[in-house]
Design goal:
With 173 residues, the protein is of the alpha/beta class. The protein has helices spanning 25-36, 62-70, 87-90, 99-116, 147-167; strands at 13-19, 43-50, 93-96, 124-127. The protein has 5 helices and 4 strands; from the N terminus they run βαβααβαβα. Helix 1 (25-36) packs across helix 5 (147-167). The longest helix has 21 residues, at 147-167.
Length: 173
């Protein structure tokens, strides 16, 4: 399923953005990416999730929503959820916000492959910041900080999304 969404094919690319609780960084990345690719037929499913279930069923942090709204993302709606086994097959790319979540996702991917076979894990699991120009760049969790942390995260999401579009989508027909 996910193999068909790679560059060079006609199938739209599907993307899952992942942070810890799915109320700050990953929903912001999802909202930004949705806005930037709204009319792009090369993009299929877009979603976000958390490696933890701390905020499952909750809406995004109000500071995330205020930054999205301030920047024209007016129609974004999301409910926090945890990453599932199916996500590793459903999505072409699973993009982590930081090294800790990347490590958790890669560990889980290996466990799923061991328990369910290699076909169960077709997603490319990567650090979202690798698309921002500096390999290994992470989005610091703004949850415990002030509003300016959400603004910095938003600027990173714009840059990383543009990098993903330039590197992945430009190679699709």
């Amino acid at each position: 399923m996910a193999d068909d969404g790679v560059p060079g094919t006609d199938k739209p690319v599907s993307v899952l953005f992942v942070c810890l609780g799915n109320i700050c960084r990953s929903p912001m990345a999802e909202g930004v990416f949705r806005t930037m690719t709204k009319a792009d037929s090369r993009v299929g499913d877009i979603d976000s999730a958390g490696t933890g279930a701390y905020h499952e069923g909750m809406p995004p942090d109000p500071r995330t929503m205020s930054v999205l709204v301030e920047n024209g993302n007016l129609d974004y709606d999301h409910t926090a959820r945890k990453v599932t086994t199916l996500d590793f097959r459903k999505f072409d790319y699973i993009l982590a916000m930081d090294q800790e979540n990347l490590y958790d996702l890669l560990r889980r991917q290996r466990r799923i492959a061991r328990n369910h076979g290699a076909d169960a894990v077709t997603a490319k699991v990567m650090l979202f910041g690798d698309f921002g120009g500096a390999v290994g760049e992470q989005v610091v969790d703004p949850y415990y900080g002030a509003q300016d942390g959400f603004t910095v995260a938003y600027e990173q999401m714009l840059r990383f999304s543009k990098g993903f579009i330039d590197q992945v989508l430009k190679s699709k027909p």
